[in-house]
Amino acid sequence: MSENSQDNTILLSKRKIRKEISSQLRSQEKKQILENSAAIKRRLFDLEEFKKARCVVFYVSMETEVNTYDMIDESIQMGKRVGVPVVVEGEGCLNISQINSREKELKKGFYGVGQPEAKTIRPIPCEDMELVLVPGIAFDKAGNRLGRGKGYYDKFLKGLPKRALTIGLCFNFQVVESIPRLPHDIPVKMLLAG
User: Fold this and answer.
1) Is 135 left (phi over 0), alpha (psi -120 to 50) or beta?
2) Sign of the C-alpha dihedral, residues 39, 43, 60, 146?
3) Domains in the chain, please, with CATH?
4) Most exposed residue of 24, 29, 93, 123, measured as fewest CB within 10 angstroms of its CB?
5) Rounded to whole angstroms, how far apart are CA atoms 83 and 27?
């Protein structure tokens, strides 16, 4: 099989998984999302790596994802340096900005996801990031992830220092047997599902 047809097979397989899991994500009850998110938050906050981390990067959740709002708010209250992604228009990449208040500083940005406005951006350098929470449509037990297909997180994860712990947050049904990988796909080091 040629490299191109192999890549096409992988892309088709990814598209199929993305479609199936996205449908399940959309069919969840809000109450169930919040209950499962709270259980995942407890597991995250119990991790030694989380307790020790001074700088934590969260994704700002969309309504069908593991909800990170309480995680962000509580981490700020704990005195952690909290960063969230900022989509850089036209560059196809993510930068990370420190926030001190989710409610006051985040406005709807690209794809309807909350992010700081340009005037409030406080960049966090990659070398300061100790723990990074990563969204995904699906993951496998090896940490391979299937995102939304834009490649933002793969580019971002590639630039992180080796010591940074990357953790995928997801619901149990988002963990699949296997996710096919392309060379640019970057897996997470740990998975928290609930």
Assistant:
1) beta
2) negative
3) 3-193 (3.40.50.10420)
4) 29
5) 30
Residue 149's CB: how many other CB atoms inside 10 A?
A: 11
**To the nearest 5 percent, what fractions of the chain are helix, strand and coil?**
40, 25, 35
Rounded mean pLDDT of the chain? 92
The 10s digit of each residue's pLDDT in 138-191 is: 999 999 999 887 788 999 999 999 999 999 999 999 999 999 888 888 999 999
Question: Position 67: which residue type?
Answer: N
What's the start-to-end Cα distance of the chain, in Å?
38
Angle between helices 69-77 and 30-46 (to 10 degrees): 40
Amino acid 106 reads: L
Q: Which amino acid is at 50?
A: F
The β-bridge relationship of strands 145-146 and 138-140 is antiparallel
